[in-house]
Amino acid sequence: MGYYIYWGFTTMNKELILKLIDGARANAENAYCPYTNVPEGCSLLVEDNMIFGGCNIENGDLGTYETAGQVAISKAISEGYTKFCAICFWCNKKMPYPNAHTRQLLSEFCKTIQIIVATDETYSMMNLADIYPFASEGHLDD
């Protein structure tokens, strides 16, 4: 790994960061991306140190496209985990910042989650609030 951008973390050590990046990279190998040819992978760390993986799953109908983050989050929730600690997105072609749908999904469960975006050359870290400062509060209290 080359350089990385530090956005104020003190709780994650480099070993854990690299484990999440390696897992996201491995998950990208399972991506189904015949339309973009851009495989993406994700690793989601939950509260008891379990890691759930995901990859992007494309479809000819763009409305049914699943991002790597959405897949990992769905797997964790379906197994009963809703307390998220960190999430890593990996792509071999570009910095894979999570899209708005994934940001909103994350904000439902942890507005302060630590996010890592990585390629083979570099990685960057941030909090969800840094890239999604005005997350919807939802409609449960309406």
Describe the structure.
This protein has 142 residues and is α/β, with parallel strands linked by helices. It has one domain (4-119): Cytidine Deaminase, domain 2, CATH 3.40.140.10. It contains four helices and six strands, in the order E-H-E-E-H-E-H-E-E-H. The chain has helices spanning 14-28, 68-78, 100-109, 128-131, and strands at 4-5, 40-46, 51-55, 84-91, 114-118, 123-127. Strands 1-6-5-4-2-3 form a six-stranded mixed beta sheet. The radius of gyration is 14 Å and the shape is globular.
Helix content: 25-40%
The coarse overall form would be globular
Largest sheet: 6 strands, mixed
- pLDDT under 50 segments (min length 5)? 1-10
Succession of helices and strands: EHEEHEHEEH
What proportion strand? 15-25%
How many individual domains? 1
CATH homologous superfamily placement:
Cytidine Deaminase, domain 2
**Which structural category do the helix and sheet elements fall into?**
alpha/beta
Strand numbers in spatial order across the main sheet? 1-6-5-4-2-3
CATH architecture label: 3-Layer(aba) Sandwich
Q: Quick one: how many beta strands?
A: 6
Mean pLDDT: 87
Distance between the termini: 46 Å
Number of helices: 4
| Annotated CATH topology | Cytidine Deaminase, domain 2
Radius of gyration from the alpha-carbon trace, in angstroms? 14 Å
The top-level CATH class is Alpha Beta
Secondary-structure blueprint of this entry?
Layout: E1 4-5, H1 14-28, E2 40-46, E3 51-55, H2 68-78, E4 84-91, H3 100-109, E5 114-118, E6 123-127, H4 128-131
Parallel strand pairs: 1-6, 4-5
Antiparallel strand pairs: 2-3, 2-4, 5-6
